[in-house]
Amino acid sequence: MFTIWFIFAQYILATDDVHGMEALLKSREYVRGHSWGVAGRVLLLAAVGTLVALIPIIGPLLNLLLVPFTLIYYHEIFKDLREIKGSVSYIASPGAKIKWLAAGAAGYLIVPAIGLALLGPSLLQGWSHWTWNIRNEGGILQSSSSSVSTASDQSQLSVEVTGEESAGAEPDNGPHRLDLGKDRFEPGEGAVPEPSPATVYVPLTGDDPDQVMVYVFAINYRGSVRFDGKEIYPIEGERDMSYNYTGNLTLNRGSNTFEVDYQALPDPWMTEIKLKVFSHDWKTGEETVHGEWIIKDTEGRQSYEVVLGD
Prior knowledge:
5-stranded antiparallel sheet, 37% helix, alpha+beta, single chain
């Protein structure tokens, strides 16, 4: 709108020797009452220039050659307005100048403020999600890969036990558990949680119970993870590279199905796929795990059902 009003200020400067804010406001007086006619012609010329610029290779050059003709066309519109309205006498008061200067300056504040208001919540949620994932998973929201140690890497673990000599770690039949309240490792029941049943239920409680998150970890597999028939994460299958993915999903009321197709790489030193469905409360920081499954066999397809509601 300002462009249409003030487009003839350059010609007023040349013909009437009026400059600054007075030239801009006098241009507005010429356009007053003919805004739609002027706007239609200016927009038509802009559309032609855009189409010319889209021509491959020579488009920008042709658009540059059109600039003088564009200025001539604007001048012809200005001449027609002068013939219609005659010589317009307009003296801008200090108040009018301040008003328009303030309106122009406000644009530098209003546009960023509107953009921040529209995008701010999404940016803050994304930042919180990213920092939470870094803190809890050691990765990023999108899929990532990193090298892992192999069986050929040798190391010694020394555990200090109160009242006894230090000794190197020896293999055991089961996993070990570190109790933060103690100063030593103890053989214990699996540090890895028991897999969830094939069907789990998500209660209709709290805010947005249908909004859940899914975490996928895979090493030495190729395949894919699908949600209700749509692939949400491809497992690329590069040897000895761990792949991690965390994303948001919206559950449908009733049954929802996760399917994992997988095939282990030849001669892997270890294989594992972990699928976890959980909810995270961004206000309290609490995490609720609805289902967690681990796959270690060579190949196949596993299906898990997540039911929203009873």
